[in-house]
């Protein structure tokens, strides 16, 4: 019955998916929500619908490759020229990082098979290209990582075929828009026109490779160089920030207290612990939602023991709590403080790269950061996109830099999250479109935000990163 339940649920999902496709162009007015809440709602699935359904949310998170998605990347008036593009991705679908104690782990095949679902037209060529090896395209220690997933029973955290296909799709979509339509790279493009950076996990490197394989017209190892980023915040040489850590500790305390208040959640963990026959504490520490999401995303029934089965009701309780946790996280703003400091270095680096492009430099026109949920989430929050959904598998956050050909000294930015234009939802450009007919945000707004307003938003008197990170008496 567990399986049947899951099947019914997946059936409901495919209906949901077609509903999403149809919902996007529909104005929020038709949703029948009050005008007060309507204001908060972005016209797309980036935001929560008025009532959040845990299974619906979970399936958006899975990001199961299906119909071609709508995407707003590259939309600009004719007199705008695309100058540079900066892409932040979360790795694609992966095997869980944790096991549910004393249960059989889900049997998922992490080898790549061109004629197994999900398909992608470039999958076969990708496998054959990657299996020939790479030469010296990576900064140490990335060289020791496998170039594609290859275990018949996935290893913990390994990228799956779904994850590879998700990023081949991302790459192809960006190629159609940025290379074919906007000619971001010249035909004789060279290695220094790309800037590539990944954390040291195989799933992020492989996700980056899959995206590039879909994106580049000729995937030539001689033109690929991936830098290694040791920090999930991509903070390079500026990682030391005590105040950021203090915000994080307070945020974790908030999270802990919210959990204690949820008696249904405690009861659910208790039931599940009884099923798998370990102490409740041990089960909770094993973060079972991560493994349960994998079962859900791969249509594998939840595990059973002779004491019973983990089931969809357990899943719904834990997932619903997660959604409530995110809601409280937004209200209490501790995570915002953490995010403003955590995201500053990478945003600062990005505007530096954009500034050089505005000066006419032709290097690093396409930047790719292959990263994690704990990378994208603070960046979204810092930009003021706290209403945006938690980064799903293969999520993409893109900064586009444009030049107005009629006023060549004026540069503008667009911000896109999973294909949706969120430029005017950012805190540095919220009201701009009401004052200006331009469908973009002045680049200066972003620069001012990163150089100064980010710190003002923290509420102290600091106006730079170092002071904000070392504020006394916080
Ligand atoms: C899920 O698995 C069940 C049984 O293994 C199968 O009958 C069903 O078609 C699968 N559903 C999807 C959407 O793949
Ligand atoms: C911000 O970027 C500039 C160069 O563009 C650099 O000199 C400065 O150290 C960076 N600051 C931080 C805190 O990363």
TrEMBL record:
It comes from the Eukaryota. GO terms for molecular function: phosphatase activity. Keywords: Glycoprotein, Golgi apparatus, Hydrolase, Membrane, Signal-anchor, Transmembrane, Transmembrane helix. It is a single-pass type II membrane protein. GO terms for biological process: chondroitin sulfate proteoglycan biosynthetic process; glycosaminoglycan biosynthetic process. It holds the Pfam family His_Phos_2. It catalyses: 3-O-[beta-D-GlcA-(1->3)-beta-D-Gal-(1->3)-beta-D-Gal-(1->4)-beta-D-2-O-P-Xyl]-L-seryl-[protein] + H2O = 3-O-(beta-D-GlcA-(1->3)-beta-D-Gal-(1->3)-beta-D-Gal-(1->4)-beta-D-Xyl)-L-seryl-[protein] + phosphate. It is found in: Golgi apparatus membrane. CDD domains: HP_HAP_like. InterPro entries: His_Pase_clade-2, His_PPase_superfam, Histidine_acid_phosphatase. One of its GO terms (cellular component) is Golgi membrane. Responsible for the 2-O-dephosphorylation of xylose in the glycosaminoglycan-protein linkage region of proteoglycans thereby regulating the amount of mature glycosaminoglycan (GAG) chains. Sulfated glycosaminoglycans (GAGs), including heparan sulfate and chondroitin sulfate, are synthesized on the so-called common GAG-protein linkage region (GlcUAbeta1-3Galbeta1-3Galbeta1-4Xylbeta1-O-Ser) of core proteins, which is formed by the stepwise addition of monosaccharide residues by the respective specific glycosyltransferases. Belongs to the histidine acid phosphatase family. Interacts with B3GAT3; the interaction increases the 2-phosphoxylose phosphatase activity of PXYLP1 during completion of linkage region formation in a B3GAT3-mediated manner. This is 2-phosphoxylose phosphatase 1.
């Amino acid at each position: 019955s567990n399986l049947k339940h899951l099947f019914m649920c997946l059936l409901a999902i495919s209906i949901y998916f077609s509903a999403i496709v149809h919902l996007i162009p529909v104005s929020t007015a038709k949703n029948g929500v009050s005008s007060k809440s309507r204001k908060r709602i972005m016209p797309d699935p980036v935001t929560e619908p008025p009532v959040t359904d845990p299974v619906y949310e979970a399936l958006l998170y899975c990001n199961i490759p299906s119909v071609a998605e709508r995407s707003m990347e590259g939309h600009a008036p004719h007199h705008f020229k695309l100058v540079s593009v900066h892409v932040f991705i979360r790795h694609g679908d992966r095997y869980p990082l944790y096991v549910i104690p004393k249960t059989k782990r889900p049997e998922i095949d992490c080898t790549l098979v061109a004629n197994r679902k999900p398909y992608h037209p470039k999958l076969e060529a990708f496998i054959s290209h990657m299996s020939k090896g790479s030469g010296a395209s990576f900064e140490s220690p990335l060289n020791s990582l496998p170039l594609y997933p290859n275990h018949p029973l996935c290893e913990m955290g390994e990228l799956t075929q779904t994850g590879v296909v998700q990023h081949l799709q991302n790459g192809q979509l960006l190629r159609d828009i940025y290379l074919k339509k906007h000619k971001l790279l010249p035909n004789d493009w060279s290695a220094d026109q790309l800037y590539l950076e990944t954390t040291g996990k195989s799933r992020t490197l492989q996700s980056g490779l899959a995206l590039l394989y879909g994106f580049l017209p000729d995937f030539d190892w001689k033109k690929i160089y991936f830098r290694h980023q040791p920090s999930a915040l991509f903070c390079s040489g500026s990682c030391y920030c005590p105040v950021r850590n203090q915000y994080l500790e307070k945020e974790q305390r908030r999270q802990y207290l919210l959990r204690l208040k949820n008696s249904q959640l405690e009861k659910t963990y208790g039931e599940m612990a009884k099923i798998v026959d370990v102490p409740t504490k041990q089960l909770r520490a094993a973060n079972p939602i991560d493994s349960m999401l994998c079962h859900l995303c791969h249509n594998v029934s939840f595990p059973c023991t002779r004491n019973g089965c983990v089931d969809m009701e357990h899943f719904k309780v834990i997932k619903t709590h997660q959604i409530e946790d995110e809601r409280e996280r937004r209200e209490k703003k501790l995570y915002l403080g953490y995010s403003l400091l955590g995201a500053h270095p990478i945003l600062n680096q990005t505007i530096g790269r954009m500034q050089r492009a505005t000066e006419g430099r032709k290097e690093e026109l396409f930047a790719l950061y292959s990263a994690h949920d704990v990378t994208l989430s603070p960046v979204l929050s810092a930009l003021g996109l706290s209403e945006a959904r938690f980064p799903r598998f293969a999520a993409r956050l893109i900064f586009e830099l444009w030049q107005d050909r009629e006023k060549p000294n004026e540069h503008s930015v667009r911000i896109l999250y999973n294909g949706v234009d969120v430029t005017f939802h950012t805190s540095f450009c919220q009201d701009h479109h009401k004052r200006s007919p331009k469908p973009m945000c002045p680049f200066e707004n972003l620069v001012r935000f990163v150089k100064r307003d980010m710190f003002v938003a923290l509420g102290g008197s600091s106006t730079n990163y170092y002071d904000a990170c070392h504020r006394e008496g916080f």
